[in-house]
Amino acid sequence: MRTLRAHELLAPVLRELAAGLEPAAVTDVLIGNAVGGGGNVARLALLEAGLPVSVPGLTVDRQCGSGLDAIVLAAGLVAGGGNPLYLAGGVESTSTAPLRAHRNDDGGPEFYPRAQFVPEKFGDPDMGVAAETVARKYGISRDRQDAFALCSHRRALAAAEAGYFDGELVPLTAGTRTVAVDDGPRRGLGSAVMARFPAAFVDGGTVTAGNSCFDADAASAVVITSLQRARDLGMPDGLLVLGTGTAGVEPEVLGIGAASAARDVLAVAGVTAEELDLVEFNEAFASQTLASLDELGIDAGRVNLDGGALALGHAYGASGAVLVTRLLAQARRNGTPGSLALAMISIAGGMGTAALLRYERFQPPLPQL
């Protein structure tokens, strides 16, 4: 997919979502994007998807949290009343992301690898360096990181073989090739292979390429509307939004931002970690995932049941939306109304966003024949 631009990744997903709706009835399209070229990729993609020109679009940037924050924003707008209907999610094409440059005094370009997230007095650490800081501060060993990453790959492979991803994926055409499956999970990984990876970001550190995510290209989106309108549209089931929140933490340990946000959301809802049935956490690095779960008292074995970003890749602005897509698919598979689900993601600059959801069926079951 390295030749597809962000709107070309997103348009087929929006088209698939809109196929079951009256496209002109879509109130707005809210899309997260982190490293695009500016403009408004939401509007560009929705028109590419064939939605009518009467449908507006809004692009949201909270870096890695953008996709989940777009969904959170849409849910908040629905709570305002009026039974609106939104398409919300995220997209990222890391492969075609534009080069970035400041303009020098002489007018020439000075290229830089990433945007500044916080003032220099806070250190503004790179993601890998911050992951090392989290590992050291929260006592996350190399062995735990490697074991968690290996589990992610094995779970993703098992889920793919079981066909769990089939109902979530939209095939994309790039040139003469159609891409219908993810190729991130690695069969050849084992404990011995994981142990051979050297430290990737800090000399003598524990964070390696093996227990860190890889950059990915992806788009993900969902329909957000009121319960009444969902029923009127004949939607069979979905996730009810019970609570959402975003929190800030020290930028040097940005990877635990999700834990801070999730703790607040759970406290407001009066829900304990033990009561959660499904949890999806964006696995940017094994160290920050494990540290955040430890802080929340959530056993790592209960999280990301079909693998996560360590195996499937991290598509920045899309990843938060992928979490919600995964939770709905898992809830449908389990088929238990009332199941509580938590989506959470840590964000550059020292932030995190979390959403507490509950699976419910909207239509009465058809009578047995």
Outline the low-pLDDT stretches.
none
Give the CATH topology of the largest domain: Peroxisomal Thiolase, Chain A, domain 1
Order of helices and strands: HEHEHEEEHHEEHEHEHEHHHEE
Number of helices: 11
Helix content: 25-40%
Structural class: alpha/beta
> Which whole number gives the mean pLDDT?
95
In the sheet with the most strands, the strands line up as: 2-1-3-8
Strand proportion = 15-25%
The named CATH superfamily of the largest domain: Thiolase/Chalcone synthase
- State the shape: globular
The end-to-end distance, rounded to whole angstroms, is 45 Å
Total beta-strand segments: 12
**Gyration radius from CA atoms, angstroms:** 20 Å
Main pleated sheet: 4 strands, mixed
Overall CATH class of the largest domain: Alpha Beta
Number of domains: 2
Named at the architecture level, the CATH assignment of the largest domain is 3-Layer(aba) Sandwich
EC number: 2.3.1.9
GO cellular component, one term: cytoplasm
GO biological process, one term: phenylacetate catabolic process
Organism: Pseudarthrobacter siccitolerans
